[in-house]
Design a protein that fits this description.
Structural class: alpha+beta
Helix content: 40-55%
Number of strands: 5
Largest sheet: 5 strands, mixed, barrel
Number of helices: 8
Radius of gyration: 19 Å
């Protein structure tokens, strides 16, 4: 429903911040409230989570953090509060390394994450990271910087169709040699290469 809030951080508490957007105060639960300063303007990326007995806004410092949260809560046994606890460590590279290398011990150090849940995280999220340590979702395409906007748009379209960053990276060099005029042409050429 909401993508982000731009406003003044009017309160910082141990578990949430209040973002004042044109006179309306939004209570936003965040992993580390102390990343924000009271009476300072901020952009807070948010996700609204509706449960049987509560509605809450969860806030994130950037889109990558939000994407990791969304992936984490998609894992059976991980709720929004557990996902925030994992993000609070701010060791995203350590988290990525643990998931990609089946490190159950690392994951069980987080509150309410037992061995079975850690194994489920690894099973569900392994391979979902790009080379840059970003997590991908349809709403946030992987960034492929090439200096050619049409090519970048074509690659982003391939990403949104569900091709992995690894698959797209393999064909990127071939597409860069093509002198195509539109994102549509790059998309079609990319689909041809990926279907070989």
């Amino acid at each position: 429903m909401f993508e982000y809030l731009n406003g003044l951080v009017s309160a910082v508490t141990p578990s949430y911040i209040v973002v004042d957007v044109q006179g309306v105060g939004y209570k936003v639960q965040v992993a580390n409230p102390y990343r924000y300063e009271e009476n300072q303007s901020a952009r807070v990326y948010v996700e609204q989570v509706v449960r049987d007995n509560e509605q809450a806004l969860y806030g994130f410092y950037d889109l990558n953090e939000k994407n990791i949260f969304l992936h984490l809560i998609s894992v059976s046994g991980i709720g929004p509060k557990s996902a925030l606890a994992i993000l609070a460590g701010q060791d995203l590279q350590g988290l990525i390394h643990a998931i990609e290398n089946d490190d159950v011990k690392y994951l069980t150090k987080f509150p309410k994450i037992g061995k079975r849940t850690a194994q489920q995280i690894i099973l569900d999220l392994s391979g979902k990271f790009t080379a840059e340590g970003q997590m991908t979702l349809g709403e946030a395409p992987v960034q492929f910087t090439t200096g050619n906007q049409e090519l970048e748009d074509g690659l982003a379209a391939l990403d949104s169709l569900g091709y992995s960053a690894k698959e797209i990276s393999k064909i990127k060099a071939q597409l860069e040699k093509e002198n195509l005029k539109s994102a549509d042409e790059y998309l079609r050429a990319g689909l041809k290469l990926l279907s070989k």
